[in-house]
Amino acid sequence: MKLVFALLTGLVFGAGIAISGIMDPAKVLNFFDVAGAWDPSLAFVMGGAVVVTFVGYRLVWRRQSPLFGGRFQLPTSTAIDGRLVGGSALFGIGWGIAGFCPGAAIPALGTGRWEVALFLLAVIAGFSLRRLLPSVLSKAAT
Fold first, then answer.
1. pLDDT digits 0-9 by tens, 49-104
2. Rounded to 5 degrees, what angle do the CA atoms 67, 13, 4 make?
3. How many domains does the chain have?
4. Fewer CB within 10 A of the end CB, N or C, for the chain?
5. How far, in Å, CA of 63 to CA of 72, rounded?
6. Residues with Cβ within 8 Å of residue 103, at least 6 apart in sequence
7. Residue 68: which residues within 8 A CB-CB, separation 6 or more?
8. Are 32 and 25 in contact (CB under 8 A)?
């Protein structure tokens, strides 16, 4: 049952991404182009997402545990450090350059555009490099 709800959640997410236009990098780039051909429609999408999330969290936190899990898994760190700020900046810069974020690029794979596949390969390479970098640096230091 857990997998069925995971699939349904993914389908709803993908449909929302497609309907909102976030799969179209030109629409996303126009949203960021406030001095040119600015398209404010994605602000309404984000605002709607914030409202739904706010209500959803209020309902979920009333429960003792998740419906399909043993316990809620929350971040333990509240620190705003260089890694968080740097990662956020890198994410934003990548989104602004490519017009894709990873969440929107995954459903956009269904469009068959080679740019989407290239973007996701770059994301995977970046994740892999991030995992390898600490071990490579520690070996170089010794």
1. 899 999 999 999 898 888 887 888 888 888 999 888 988 898 888 888 888 888 88
2. 45
3. 1
4. C
5. 10
6. 13, 17
7. 1, 2, 5
8. no
Tokens of 88: 């956020």
Instruction: Give me the sign of the Cα torsion angle 97, 101, 106, 107.
Output: negative
Q: How far apart are the first and last CA of the chain?
A: 49
| Tokens at 30, concatenated | 């126009």
| CA 127 vs CA 4, 18, 123, 131: distances in Å | 28, 25, 6, 6
* Domain with 137 in it: 2-141
The tokens for 19 are 């309907």
Question: Taking the complete model, does pTM exceed 0.70, yes or no?
Answer: no
